[in-house]
Design brief:
globular, transferase, seven-stranded mixed β-sheet, membrane, alpha/beta, lipid metabolism, Plipid/glycerol_acylTrfase, 283 residues
Length: 283
Amino acid sequence: MAKRKMEWAASGTHLRGMPRRVVFMAVGAFAKAVANLLNTTTVHNADTLLRLVRHRPPGVPLLTVSNHMSTLDDPVMWGFKGFPTMDARMARWVLAAEDICFKNAVLSYIFRLGKCVPITRGAGIYQEHMNEALERLSDGEWLHTFPEGKVSQEDGPIRRLKWGTASLINRAPVTPIVLPIVHHGLQEVMPENYFHGRRPLLPLCNKRINIVVGEPIEFNLPKMREMAITTSRDFSLPTLGWPSASPCGLDEAAQRSLYNAISDRIQAVMESLRIFGKKILMP
């Protein structure tokens, strides 16, 4: 089993939580400045997000999903007015690309303090750090994912989602509240191809950031699992050696069918939010 990278630094008890609080104070202040001082941020339906972050039932995890338009999406999308961005106790856990955020020991330590879970792109949905993310959901925590899997700054439809998020929804002991979020404008704050194919050294200013928070997506998982078993009988894809997904015990073909159905549902809701966001942005 692969070893989890610097997991001890992600613990809330590490040095009595002081380094984590310092990181969230600093990063939170940065997010607030970029979102509200340097740029203009508007949020539709922010109350739903705030309510679920602060007051969801005990033991029930929250899983937020969003499109991925820049390397600054997290933390800046949480920097809007009224959000407890600098409160480490309420802050999200987030899946973060290992090749970007965990390049060396210093970055790994800082991102671990920031409640980031490293994900190795291409290593599959059953890699060890996905089990760590599952544990955070099992603890009733808030986890954020970018299910598209990578940054895309094209002004187009939500791309086909990776299956990692769907697998977490299925495997969590308590089904999480799944809240979709779609944003626009951060691709202008941190463009990928600003100067000779590089990002700017600092966030750009005088841009408009628009965030649309949806309503929780409900999944009838028992029914979806039954449907997956039925539809998977027609699958003839080569196997990848996936384990049976406890507690439901689906074989690999049924898991693929289920994860595809869950992902399609999330993608459709996110696309409707994207279209709604474009309408409210129109002059």
